[in-house]
Design brief:
alpha/beta, Rossmann fold
Length: 178
């Protein structure tokens, strides 16, 4: 059994990427893993100040929701991210959270496998590539970890447009096969 954290970064209720996250969670739970989904809806996540105090403290000096999220990520075996693609990149809130997780850099971490699920109105194959590159930049700072899988569903724009899409089953299978 693995400890799995799924971070849904969309702030829109009923978002397509959040529905992918839910299916990933279902699949991982069906496989017997312990899973927690963290939605960034309602979370207080401020911008990094670049002070680098986190490198000495092992936590951020900003008192918001990030330190609690980091504690869970550090202890996870698997971390799955779900994000909408905005202007061919991950959501701003995902990037802000990744920047704030700089405090984890000098710490011992348990996670090995990282997954990325993305959705966008555009449907071209290259749409998620910048988001993947951005996440890979973060993963490169944790040499015991790797990008273990990605899933992209294009052609979905409005809330819940993804319902009935076969990519939901693929998200379930991705979670089920970790």
């Amino acid at each position: 059994m693995k400890n799995v954290i799924v971070i849904s970064t969309s702030l829109r209720h009923g978002s397509n990427s959040d529905l992918l996250a839910d299916k990933f969670v279902e699949g991982a739970q069906a496989a017997g893993h312990e899973v927690e989904k963290i939605s960034l809806v309602g979370k207080d996540i401020q911008f990094c100040k670049g002070c680098l105090a986190c490198q000495q403290l092992g936590r951020c000096v900003i008192n918001d929701d990030v330190n609690g999220i980091m504690d869970k990520v550090l202890k996870a075996d698997v971390v799955a991210w779900a994000t909408p693609i905005y202007y061919y990149e991950m959501s701003g809130q995902m990037k802000t959270l990744i920047d704030r997780m700089n405090a984890m850099y000098p710490l011992d971490y348990q996670f090995r496998d990282i997954y990325l699920m993305t959705t966008a109105a555009e449907d071209e194959e290259q749409v998620p590539k910048r988001a993947e590159a951005g996440l890979t930049g973060w993963i490169d700072c944790y040499p015991k970890s790797r990008l273990a899988g990605t899933l992209f569903c294009g052609g979905v724009n409005g809330a819940r447009d993804i319902e009935g899409n076969p990519k939901l089953q693929e998200a379930y299978e991705l979670g089920n096969n970790i």
